[in-house]
From TrEMBL:
GO terms for molecular function: ATP binding; protein histidine kinase activity. It comes from the Bacteria. The chain crosses the membrane at residues 6-28, 270-293. Pfam families: HWE_HK. Residues 350-432 form the Signal transduction histidine kinase HWE region domain. SMART domains: HWE_HK. Keywords: ATP-binding, Kinase, Membrane, Nucleotide-binding, Phosphoprotein, Transferase, Transmembrane, Transmembrane helix. Its EC number is 2.7.13.3. It is an enzyme of class 2 (transferase). It comes from Shinella sumterensis. This is histidine kinase.
Amino acid sequence: MHYPVLFYLVCMILVLIVPAFLFSMVVLKRTNEAQERIFESLLRTSTSAVNRAVEREISGMFSTLNFLSTSESLVQGDFAGLHAQASKTLEGTDIYFLVIDPTMRQLVNTRVPYGTALNMASDPTSASLALARGERMVSDIFFGRTAQQWVFNVYQPMRLSNGRQVLLTLTKNADALRRAVNPDVLSPGWNAAVIDSTGTVIASTDEKQKTGTEFFLRVVPSLRLGVSTMRQDGTNYQIVTEFSSLAGWRMIAWAKSSDVQAPAASSIRWLVIGGVVFALLAAIGAVGIARVLSRDVRLLAHDARRLGHGERVAARPYAITELETVSRALAEAADARVKSENEVRFLMREVAHRSKNQLTVIQAMLNQSAAGAENAADFAETFRKRVAGLARSTDLMIANASDGINLMELAKNQLKPFTPDDAARVRITGPAVLLDPQASQTLGMALHELSTNATKYGALANERGIVSLSWVAKGEDLNLVWRESKASIDREAIAASRKGFGSVVLERMLGMALDAKLDFIVHDDGIEWRVTIPLARLRDEEAHHARHNS
């Protein structure tokens, strides 16, 4: 069906406006998601920072206990000396050292001078648990009778040399952990607290959450680790919880959901306004662009019809760059069509030429394989291997037809099927030399036949023979040498091989196709072929293309 330009203009405006609103909706959704991820990252960072600070404090206390556990005074049962050493070690800190026996009686307490009458342990439950487990642990917060304030203990059980078991203890005031709960690492509106396993506040940035009181969110033990939401007394909260495996405590950061979502709500409002403005501007712009586009499209359609009729199309100037590019493409299409037709005709002639060459080579291989075969199986195997060698040369020719075939790659390709397990017995050296397809086929067949003879009669027929293939470009010639050494010489076999297809390839095809000069030498430990080929004959294909294109 056909519609007037006005219909397409309206459709174009809608196409521009609707995506604008959809885009705004996507941006709003992505903004909210990004905001949530940012807050989650910040909260996790904050609670992780508090957790690391608390665990550093506790790790330091464990290290101090390890040090004091090696005291000679402790080993000898000299508690007065131990008291003096511990007081000196902990001087200037807010940490105190205690020794508690299994009856929960304090033997040493550096909060008071040595010899002062000491109370029983203020938290016998955690102390007894540490002795029963026989491993170090951290207590929950409790009110210390000697300190007369909220404290927590770090325990390390130890058995003295006389077999007596004691509990080495470091006690620390809970208020000292306030510096670990640093409000500077929190976002505005957020608070953080350290809560023990019973839900009691150890330290908090919120002045309402006093040390030793129950945390106001009463379901603390069931809080999931990570980010969660909770409703308490009609108020929604966002909470991040992290667990300290060292202390058994929780680090909690919380804020009212309304405070957290306020920046996102503001962003949503501005995004809505921006989306509406963008949609209006897009609609106005679409009207103007559609008018210009409709005019230019009509001109392009006219040129396309001319191209379809086989007429020449000239490039036109257009207001829209993309349409001008299309116009140039239409103008170039006619020229490209003529060029493509010429290339197709050339490729057809080239395929016919290459096919005739291949058939000639295969016919020669067939005749020589039949003449030298003793039976049908021998003929089939010999002919199959020669065709395989020709196929490898053809693969290289096809893969590198535009750049030429590298002689090194051709040599490795042809000798690879004959290379023994000890690859060092086949040595190939020479500079980079590029061959045209015809030369690569001829040399590939020659190398295949030389390798076949070496495997049957020459250096590769035993376990120690070596084949060396090398070439150098000297002046206007390529000097190629095939040398076999450490071979078992069988002059009758050598004489017979010179009547076979390999010698035909070397002496006739190399000589006729490439104007090569060949010398055959029989050494005491192997044969040698020396081949001299004019370099110009190795790239005759270029001249052929030049003559054809001219």
